[in-house]
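INFO  loader      accepted 1 record
INFO  loader      residues=194
INFO  predictor   begin
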Amino acid sequence: MKAGSHHLAVYNFGVHTASYLAASVQGFALREPLNFEAATRAVGFVGRSGYAAEPGPESWGEQVFPRFLEEAGRTSGVSSLSLWQDIESLMAFTYSGVHADALKHARHWNERHAWPPLVLFWMNAGQLPTWTEAVERFELLTDRGPTPQAFSFKSAFTSEGVPYAVDRERVKVFSIQNSKSQADLLSLITTLPV
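INFO  predictor   done
INFO  writer      dumping tokens
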């Protein structure tokens, strides 16, 4: 895999147990901006899509949702779309620091579901994935399992389509670097309700 020739896209999707403004998901709402800030400070972060009509980064196209949203009888879901340098930098952000705290409490805010929580796929460096493309990849992973076009951390592929074993030592190094850059955010999170 040529360094810098591709970026890793990640799309995640879930359904809250109640509306975004409900007291029962307040812990999520309070952590969301901290997660976005932690990402910008993380090793390997390239960028993220914003949401139309909301302050922040520009949206990467019209936001759409997987078919599972309608199947769940909902009109809105929780999703994000971002780009990273590689699998290890994304994994370090996802499973340590500020984001790990959100994952630890996710069962309080999100419904259990049969679909995967996220999908990973490669983009040529300099290209942005659209929400529509991300949803297509998400549904592809759900319907067919991991492929080079749509995969997970457990069944990863290189940008050339070759199965890939995550370098856990790199993940540890990046996690340590991220914890230093997120120290103030981590202190703040301990004061937030679940």
